[in-house]
Amino acid sequence: MSGHSKWHSIRHKKAVVDAKRGAMFTRLIKEIAVAARMGGSDIDGNPRLRTAVTAARDANMPKENIERAIKKGAGELEGVSYEDFTLEGYGQAGVAILVEGTTDNKNRTIPEIRAIFNKGGGSLGAQGCVAWMFTKRGVILIPTQGQSEETVMEAALEAGAEDLENEGEYYRILTEPNQMEDVRAAIETKGIKVESSSLRNIPSTTVKVEGEDAPKLLRLLEALEEHDDVTSVSANEEIDDAVLEQYAQ
Protein backbone atom coordinates (compact mmCIF):
# COMPACT_ATOMS: atom_id res chain seq x y z
CA MET A 1 0.00 0.00 0.00
CA SER A 2 1.29 3.47 -0.88
CA GLY A 3 1.52 6.41 1.45
CA HIS A 4 3.74 5.02 4.18
CA SER A 5 4.10 7.57 6.98
CA LYS A 6 7.50 7.28 8.66
CA TRP A 7 6.27 9.29 11.65
CA HIS A 8 5.15 5.94 13.10
CA SER A 9 8.70 4.59 12.96
CA ILE A 10 10.14 7.70 14.59
CA ARG A 11 7.42 7.66 17.23
CA HIS A 12 8.26 4.03 18.03
CA LYS A 13 11.97 4.86 18.40
CA LYS A 14 11.25 7.86 20.61
CA ALA A 15 8.90 5.81 22.77
CA VAL A 16 11.66 3.29 23.38
CA VAL A 17 14.29 5.95 24.06
CA ASP A 18 12.10 8.15 26.25
CA ALA A 19 10.60 5.18 28.14
CA LYS A 20 7.55 7.19 29.15
CA ARG A 21 6.01 4.13 30.70
CA GLY A 22 3.53 6.00 32.89
CA ALA A 23 1.84 7.78 29.99
CA MET A 24 2.01 4.66 27.85
CA PHE A 25 0.36 2.53 30.52
CA THR A 26 -2.38 5.13 31.02
CA ARG A 27 -3.31 5.03 27.35
CA LEU A 28 -3.18 1.25 27.19
CA ILE A 29 -5.38 0.93 30.27
CA LYS A 30 -7.95 3.27 28.69
CA GLU A 31 -7.98 1.26 25.48
CA ILE A 32 -8.38 -2.03 27.38
CA ALA A 33 -11.25 -0.56 29.42
CA VAL A 34 -13.05 0.79 26.34
CA ALA A 35 -12.59 -2.49 24.46
CA ALA A 36 -13.97 -4.49 27.42
CA ARG A 37 -16.91 -2.08 27.79
CA MET A 38 -17.84 -2.33 24.12
CA GLY A 39 -17.23 -6.02 23.48
CA GLY A 40 -17.09 -7.77 26.83
CA SER A 41 -14.30 -9.18 28.95
CA ASP A 42 -13.72 -12.39 26.97
CA ILE A 43 -10.34 -11.83 25.29
CA ASP A 44 -10.83 -14.67 22.79
CA GLY A 45 -14.24 -13.37 21.74
CA ASN A 46 -13.35 -9.68 21.64
CA PRO A 47 -10.79 -8.83 18.89
CA ARG A 48 -10.33 -5.22 20.01
CA LEU A 49 -9.66 -6.31 23.58
CA ARG A 50 -7.25 -9.00 22.39
CA THR A 51 -5.29 -6.38 20.41
CA ALA A 52 -5.21 -4.01 23.39
CA VAL A 53 -4.02 -6.71 25.78
CA THR A 54 -1.32 -7.80 23.32
CA ALA A 55 -0.07 -4.20 23.11
CA ALA A 56 -0.03 -3.99 26.90
CA ARG A 57 1.98 -7.19 27.16
CA ASP A 58 4.42 -5.88 24.53
CA ALA A 59 4.91 -2.84 26.79
CA ASN A 60 5.56 -5.16 29.77
CA MET A 61 2.50 -4.00 31.66
CA PRO A 62 1.97 -6.08 34.85
CA LYS A 63 -0.68 -8.77 34.55
CA GLU A 64 -2.69 -7.37 37.47
CA ASN A 65 -2.95 -3.96 35.77
CA ILE A 66 -4.34 -5.60 32.64
CA GLU A 67 -6.85 -7.68 34.57
CA ARG A 68 -8.03 -4.67 36.58
CA ALA A 69 -8.52 -2.61 33.42
CA ILE A 70 -10.61 -5.39 31.87
CA LYS A 71 -12.80 -5.67 34.97
CA LYS A 72 -13.24 -1.89 35.16
CA GLY A 73 -14.27 -1.67 31.52
CA ALA A 74 -16.67 -4.59 31.84
CA GLY A 75 -18.39 -2.93 34.80
CA GLU A 76 -17.08 -5.39 37.36
CA LEU A 77 -15.32 -2.55 39.22
CA GLU A 78 -16.40 0.99 39.93
CA GLY A 79 -14.46 3.56 37.94
CA VAL A 80 -14.44 6.22 35.30
CA SER A 81 -16.41 5.63 32.10
CA TYR A 82 -14.44 6.25 28.90
CA GLU A 83 -15.64 6.89 25.35
CA ASP A 84 -13.84 6.98 22.00
CA PHE A 85 -13.28 10.09 19.92
CA THR A 86 -11.84 10.90 16.49
CA LEU A 87 -10.65 14.36 15.45
CA GLU A 88 -9.38 15.49 12.06
CA GLY A 89 -7.24 18.41 11.01
CA TYR A 90 -4.29 19.77 9.08
CA GLY A 91 -0.64 20.50 9.78
CA GLN A 92 2.12 22.29 7.93
CA ALA A 93 2.10 22.01 4.11
CA GLY A 94 -1.52 20.84 4.27
CA VAL A 95 -0.65 17.49 5.81
CA ALA A 96 -3.75 15.55 6.88
CA ILE A 97 -3.82 14.54 10.56
CA LEU A 98 -6.17 11.98 12.13
CA VAL A 99 -6.29 11.84 15.94
CA GLU A 100 -7.96 8.99 17.85
CA GLY A 101 -8.32 8.52 21.58
CA THR A 102 -10.46 7.81 24.62
CA THR A 103 -11.65 10.26 27.24
CA ASP A 104 -13.90 10.58 30.26
CA ASN A 105 -14.79 14.17 29.30
CA LYS A 106 -15.02 15.29 25.66
CA ASN A 107 -15.84 18.84 26.77
CA ARG A 108 -12.34 19.03 28.25
CA THR A 109 -10.40 16.97 25.72
CA ILE A 110 -11.55 18.49 22.42
CA PRO A 111 -10.67 22.12 23.34
CA GLU A 112 -7.28 20.93 24.61
CA ILE A 113 -6.51 19.18 21.33
CA ARG A 114 -7.76 22.18 19.36
CA ALA A 115 -5.31 24.33 21.33
CA ILE A 116 -2.45 21.95 20.47
CA PHE A 117 -3.30 22.25 16.77
CA ASN A 118 -3.43 26.04 16.97
CA LYS A 119 -0.22 26.39 18.98
CA GLY A 120 1.60 24.04 16.63
CA GLY A 121 0.62 25.92 13.50
CA GLY A 122 -2.11 23.51 12.42
CA SER A 123 -5.89 23.61 12.49
CA LEU A 124 -8.68 21.31 13.61
CA GLY A 125 -11.08 20.53 10.76
CA ALA A 126 -14.63 19.30 10.32
CA GLN A 127 -15.60 15.67 10.73
CA GLY A 128 -14.80 13.77 7.55
CA CYS A 129 -12.33 16.28 6.12
CA VAL A 130 -9.35 13.89 6.11
CA ALA A 131 -10.55 10.49 7.36
CA TRP A 132 -11.25 9.35 3.80
CA MET A 133 -7.49 9.50 3.09
CA PHE A 134 -6.73 6.74 5.60
CA THR A 135 -7.38 3.00 5.77
CA LYS A 136 -7.26 1.01 8.99
CA ARG A 137 -4.65 -1.74 8.90
CA GLY A 138 -2.88 -4.05 11.30
CA VAL A 139 0.83 -3.24 11.55
CA ILE A 140 3.32 -5.78 12.88
CA LEU A 141 6.91 -4.70 13.57
CA ILE A 142 9.68 -7.31 13.51
CA PRO A 143 13.35 -6.50 14.29
CA THR A 144 15.55 -7.00 11.22
CA GLN A 145 18.61 -7.96 13.25
CA GLY A 146 19.21 -11.69 13.04
CA GLN A 147 16.12 -12.34 10.91
CA SER A 148 16.35 -12.56 7.13
CA GLU A 149 13.86 -10.64 5.02
CA GLU A 150 13.17 -13.71 2.87
CA THR A 151 12.29 -15.85 5.90
CA VAL A 152 10.08 -13.18 7.45
CA MET A 153 8.33 -12.41 4.16
CA GLU A 154 7.61 -16.07 3.48
CA ALA A 155 6.14 -16.55 6.97
CA ALA A 156 4.10 -13.34 6.71
CA LEU A 157 2.60 -14.12 3.31
CA GLU A 158 1.80 -17.69 4.33
CA ALA A 159 -0.01 -16.30 7.36
CA GLY A 160 -2.16 -14.02 5.19
CA ALA A 161 -0.33 -10.69 5.44
CA GLU A 162 -0.88 -8.07 2.72
CA ASP A 163 2.59 -6.58 2.43
CA LEU A 164 6.06 -6.28 3.99
CA GLU A 165 8.44 -3.33 3.95
CA ASN A 166 12.05 -3.21 5.18
CA GLU A 167 12.47 -0.04 7.26
CA GLY A 168 16.05 -0.68 8.31
CA GLU A 169 15.65 -1.58 11.97
CA TYR A 170 12.27 -3.22 11.47
CA TYR A 171 10.25 -5.21 8.97
CA ARG A 172 6.82 -3.62 8.76
CA ILE A 173 4.02 -6.07 7.96
CA LEU A 174 0.53 -4.92 6.94
CA THR A 175 -2.60 -7.01 7.52
CA GLU A 176 -6.36 -6.69 7.47
CA PRO A 177 -7.40 -5.34 10.91
CA ASN A 178 -9.29 -8.48 11.93
CA GLN A 179 -6.41 -10.74 10.85
CA MET A 180 -3.57 -9.00 12.66
CA GLU A 181 -3.47 -11.21 15.75
CA ASP A 182 -3.80 -14.41 13.72
CA VAL A 183 -0.96 -13.33 11.42
CA ARG A 184 1.20 -12.41 14.40
CA ALA A 185 0.54 -15.76 16.08
CA ALA A 186 1.36 -17.65 12.88
CA ILE A 187 4.63 -15.73 12.45
CA GLU A 188 5.65 -16.35 16.06
CA THR A 189 5.09 -20.11 15.64
CA LYS A 190 7.92 -19.97 13.08
CA GLY A 191 10.29 -18.78 15.82
CA ILE A 192 10.32 -15.19 14.51
CA LYS A 193 10.52 -12.47 17.16
CA VAL A 194 7.77 -9.83 16.98
CA GLU A 195 8.43 -6.41 18.48
CA SER A 196 4.82 -5.15 18.51
CA SER A 197 1.49 -5.19 16.72
CA SER A 198 -1.13 -2.45 16.57
CA LEU A 199 -3.97 -1.07 14.48
CA ARG A 200 -3.03 2.06 12.53
CA ASN A 201 -4.47 4.39 9.93
CA ILE A 202 -2.41 4.16 6.73
CA PRO A 203 -2.63 7.11 4.30
CA SER A 204 -3.42 6.46 0.62
CA THR A 205 -1.24 9.38 -0.50
CA THR A 206 1.50 11.50 1.07
CA VAL A 207 2.47 15.16 1.11
CA LYS A 208 6.18 16.07 0.90
CA VAL A 209 7.21 18.38 3.75
CA GLU A 210 10.50 20.26 3.49
CA GLY A 211 12.48 23.10 5.06
CA GLU A 212 11.29 24.68 8.29
CA ASP A 213 7.88 23.04 7.95
CA ALA A 214 9.32 19.56 8.63
CA PRO A 215 10.47 20.00 12.26
CA LYS A 216 7.42 22.17 13.00
CA LEU A 217 5.12 19.40 11.81
CA LEU A 218 7.01 16.78 13.80
CA ARG A 219 6.68 18.91 16.95
CA LEU A 220 2.93 19.23 16.32
CA LEU A 221 2.53 15.47 15.85
CA GLU A 222 4.54 14.76 18.98
CA ALA A 223 2.52 17.25 21.04
CA LEU A 224 -0.70 15.59 19.91
CA GLU A 225 0.73 12.15 20.66
CA GLU A 226 1.72 13.20 24.18
CA HIS A 227 -1.80 14.26 25.17
CA ASP A 228 -3.00 11.83 27.84
CA ASP A 229 -6.30 11.08 26.06
CA VAL A 230 -4.80 10.43 22.62
CA THR A 231 -4.15 6.81 21.64
CA SER A 232 -3.00 7.30 18.04
CA VAL A 233 -1.93 10.06 15.65
CA SER A 234 -1.83 9.43 11.91
CA ALA A 235 -0.52 11.78 9.22
CA ASN A 236 0.17 11.60 5.49
CA GLU A 237 3.49 13.41 5.66
CA GLU A 238 6.60 12.52 3.66
CA ILE A 239 9.82 13.79 5.25
CA ASP A 240 13.43 13.03 4.30
CA ASP A 241 15.07 10.31 6.39
CA ALA A 242 17.90 12.66 7.42
CA VAL A 243 15.43 15.10 8.98
CA LEU A 244 13.59 12.29 10.76
CA GLU A 245 16.77 10.80 12.17
CA GLN A 246 18.01 14.19 13.38
CA TYR A 247 14.68 14.86 15.06
CA ALA A 248 14.67 11.46 16.75
CA GLN A 249 18.07 12.02 18.41
What does this structure look like?
- With 249 residues, the protein is of the alpha+beta class.
- It folds into three domains: 7-73, Integrase, N-terminal zinc-binding domain (Arc Repressor Mutant, subunit A), CATH 1.10.10.200; 83-131 and 205-248, Alpha-Beta Plaits (2-Layer Sandwich), CATH 3.30.70.980; 133-203, Alpha-Beta Plaits (2-Layer Sandwich), CATH 3.30.70.
- The chain has nine helices and ten strands.
- The protein has helices at 7-18, 21-39, 47-58, 63-73, 106-119, 149-159, 180-188, 213-226, 241-248; strands spanning 83-90, 96-103, 123-124, 134-143, 163-166, 170-175, 196-203, 207-208, 230-235, 237-238.
- It is globular and about 45 Å long.
Give Rg in angstroms: 18 Å
CATH architecture of the largest domain: 2-Layer Sandwich
Largest sheet: 4 strands, antiparallel
CATH topology of the largest domain: Alpha-Beta Plaits
First-last Cα distance: 28 Å
Number of helices: 9
Order of helices and strands: HHHHEEHEEHEEHEEHEEH
The CATH superfamily of the largest domain is known as YebC, transcriptional regulation domain
| Tally of domains | 3
Strand order, largest beta sheet = 3-1-2-9
Shape: globular
Average pLDDT works out at: 87
Q: What is the level 1 CATH name of the largest domain?
A: Alpha Beta
Helix content: 40-55%
> Which blocks of ≥5 consecutive residues have pLDDT under 50?
none
Q: Beta-sheet strand percentage?
A: 15-25%
